[in-house]
From TrEMBL:
<keyword id="KW-0460">Magnesium</keyword>
<feature type="region of interest" description="Disordered">
    <location>
        <begin position="47"/>
        <end position="82"/>
    </location>
</feature>
<keyword id="KW-0479">Metal-binding</keyword>
<keyword id="KW-0862">Zinc</keyword>
<protein>
    <submittedName>
        <fullName>ZC12D ribonuclease</fullName>
    </submittedName>
</protein>
<keyword id="KW-0863">Zinc-finger</keyword>
<dbReference type="GO" id="GO:0004521">
    <property type="term" value="F:RNA endonuclease activity"/>
</dbReference>
<dbReference type="GO" id="GO:0016787">
    <property type="term" value="F:hydrolase activity"/>
</dbReference>
<dbReference type="InterPro" id="IPR000571">
    <property type="entry name" value="Znf_CCCH"/>
</dbReference>
<keyword id="KW-0378">Hydrolase</keyword>
<dbReference type="InterPro" id="IPR040546">
    <property type="entry name" value="Rege-1_UBA-like"/>
</dbReference>
<keyword id="KW-0540">Nuclease</keyword>
<dbReference type="Pfam" id="PF18039">
    <property type="entry name" value="UBA_6"/>
</dbReference>
<comment type="similarity">
    <text>Belongs to the ZC3H12 family.</text>
</comment>
<dbReference type="GO" id="GO:0036464">
    <property type="term" value="C:cytoplasmic ribonucleoprotein granule"/>
</dbReference>
<dbReference type="InterPro" id="IPR051101">
    <property type="entry name" value="ZC3H12/N4BP1_RNase_Reg"/>
</dbReference>
<dbReference type="Pfam" id="PF11977">
    <property type="entry name" value="RNase_Zc3h12a"/>
</dbReference>
């Protein structure tokens, strides 16, 4: 009987110590109602009520949201969304390195400058393609500067070596440009190079359109990697829209009317009139009719 009552009140959420004290005071044959009254009188509460009475830890919720998810989860989602909005970057390592070395030295520091520039913008997918024979010790006909940077980028899974081998003393090199265009095309990313890849454009018509629309040119100014603000020309998208999957359209900028208040075109005028921002642009005849009707209606009301 004692065990059955103990199990019953434990299921209700009361502690074993409180139940045993009440049973000792009232006796083992006490009714369940009496035991329950005594538990309430002594002030013992079920564990569920105690947890509700205790103040719960405050949870950060984004402003303007009714969700109860913690703020840390929302911050993580925001970070993933911001990185997902940016296009993958595929860098032509040989082109960038030779450009930084004034076409005389394979400067690995130029590759590092380009990678750091895209990292600072928030790009998470960055791949650099370099021929495998650049791992070999530098020669007089092909000097290399800061070769240790290639090893560091390879450890970070950013640098990818295109295969090459020696057959009967001659080096057989795979075409690294094909790797660059193929990966960028499959990832729907951006190619960073000053090369036009004309041979690959003629090889594949789909690659032709992709190279024309997704090729990002650049310049080095005093060890500073600088892509243009208008990658596709003066009337093309901005650099931010070019590098993002979801471009932001600029707000239309209205050019003010050169005639100002003296304009006689009315609603046919294509320019902006700041003196009437909340009024419909009426023609001159409609404006005159409106002015004539206003005093007539006022006179009728007075009569």
């Amino acid at each position: 009987v004692h065990q059955s009552k103990l199990d019953f009140f434990c299921k209700l959420g009361y502690g074993k110590q409180d139940i045993c004290k009440v049973l000792e005071n009232l006796g083992q044959e006490a009714l369940e109602d009496d035991v329950l009254k005594e538990l309430i009188r002594t002030g013992s509460k079920p564990q569920a009520l105690e947890s509700q009475a205790q103040p719960s830890a405050l949870k950060l919720v984004p402003r303007g949201s009714s969700s109860t998810t913690p703020g840390s989860k929302w911050l993580g989602e925001g970070e993933s969304d911001s990185s997902d909005c940016l296009r993958p970057i595929v860098i032509d390592g040989s082109n960038v390195a030779m450009s930084h070395g004034n076409k005389e030295v394979f400067s690995c520091w130029g590759i590092q400058l380009a990678v750091d520039w895209f990292r600072e913008r928030g790009h998470t997918y960055i791949k650099v393609f370099v021929p495998l024979w650049r791992k070999e010790p530098p020669r007089q006909e092909s000097p290399i500067a800061d070769q240790h940077i290639l090893e560091e980028l390879e450890k970070q899974s950013i640098l990818v070596y295109t295969p090459s081998r020696k057959v009967k003393g001659k080096r057989v090199v795979c075409y690294d440009d094909r790797y660059i265009v193929k990966v960028a095309y499959e990832k729907d990313g951006v190619i960073v190079s000053n090369d036009n890849y004309r041979d690959l454009q003629n090889e594949n018509p789909e690659w032709k359109w992709f190279i024309e629309q997704r090729l990002l040119m650049y310049s080095f100014v005093s060890n500073r990697f600088m892509p243009p603000d208008d990658p596709l020309g003066r009337h093309g998208p901005t650099l931010n829209n070019f590098l993002s999957k979801k471009p932001v359209l600029p707000e239309p900028k209205w050019q003010p009317c050169p005639y100002g208040k003296k304009c006689t075109y009315g609603n046919k005028c294509k320019f902006y009139h700041p003196e009437r921002p909340h009024q419909a642009q009426l023609s001159v005849a409609d404006e005159l009719r409106a002015k004539l009707n206003a005093p007539l209606s006022m006179g009728k009301e007075e009569e």
